[in-house]
Design a protein that fits this description.
Order of helices and strands: HHHHHHHHHHHHHHH
CATH class of the largest domain: Mainly Alpha
Helix content: over 70%
Shape: globular
Number of domains: 3
CATH superfamily of the largest domain: Tetratricopeptide repeat domain
Strand content: under 5%
CATH topology of the largest domain: Serine Threonine Protein Phosphatase 5, Tetratricopeptide repeat
């Protein structure tokens, strides 16, 4: 796992434990103690991904899982514990057990957005797009200021677009409109997230009639705020492709000359071939 992913896991986990009651009762203190141990593991891995051996990490994770199970036997109505337990199970790919934990949390409190999101994630992975859509929409409604919920909704709409149109949940026009709206909202809420920005731009390609003009406007705007050379050249590739599709071949070729990063040469050739055939 990439070190930046470990940092993200730690950040998201700290947000999770910040929502645990900090009261003086013994149960809350006990749960915080378990959660603190888990946070400590993620912190060490974020600082040094090779800090734990595989056997040592497995042992520590199993101890955490057992601690959560024992706690939940004593506190079977603690929603926070089910959420933390479910997230840990997801991280170790015990997805069915995690799903059951989130279902229990939802039963105890049906007004928690992250629980809706996690249930939706599992259903989407199981290929149950319509069921997942309901939970993703609930997550967005419950916490509309969280960008990942909008982003995930956009991804789901795209992934299951054929099923949604065939079953009459969306017309094609409505589906495309809602997909763009979801990605656009994610970008609005977190404009510095390059992945969100990229997905919004690429979503213009996903339309039944690709909107190359809007894509080009998006890439040009995004390039103005991008600082790294690699990101600038990625955006140049996308802009060149859009220019080619718009018949502005000379501009596209001139832009492609600027793309020098070795890792992008394969993609550059694909764009050149596409422009040449256009």
């Amino acid at each position: 796992m990439h070190p930046t992913h470990h940092i993200l896991v730690l950040h998201l986990f700290l947000i999770s434990i910040s929502n645990i009651s900090t009261g003086s009762d013994l149960a809350s203190q006990r749960l915080l103690s378990i959660a603190d141990k888990e946070a400590g593991i993620y912190k060490k891995i974020a600082e040094d991904p090779a800090f734990f051996s595989n056997d040592d990490l497995d042992r520590r994770i199993n101890e955490l899982l057992q601690s959560y199970r024992t706690y939940l036997l004593d506190q079977p109505s603690d929603v926070s514990a089910y959420i933390l337990y479910g997230k840990l199970l997801r991280r170790v790919s015990e997805n069915e057990q995690a799903f059951n934990a989130f279902l229990k949390a939802d039963e105890l409190d049906p007004q928690i957005a992250v629980v809706k999101q996690q249930i939706g994630n599992h259903l989407a992975e199981e290929g149950k797009g319509k069921a997942a859509l309901s939970f993703y929409l609930q997550a967005v409604d419950l916490e509309p200021s969280i960008p990942i919920y909008h982003f995930s909704l956009g991804q789901l709409i795209h992934e299951f677009r054929s099923e949604f149109i065939k079953s009459g949940i969306f017309t094609r026009d409505a589906l495309e409109r809602e997909m763009l709206k979801a990605f656009g909202k994610a970008v609005e809420l977190e404009p510095d997230n390059f992945d969100y920005q990229m997905r919004l731009g690429e979503s213009y390609y996903d339309l039944a009639s690709p909107d190359w003009k809007s894509a080009l406007i998006h890439w040009n705007r995004l390039r103005q705020s991008t600082t790294t050379l690699l990101q600038k050249e990625i955006l140049d590739l996308h802009s060149a492709r859009a220019l080619g599709k718009l018949g502005r071949t000379d501009e596209a070729k001139a832009l492609l000359v600027q793309v020098q990063t070795a890792a992008l040469q394969g993609s550059k050739k694909q764009v050149i071939d596409e422009i040449t055939q256009h």
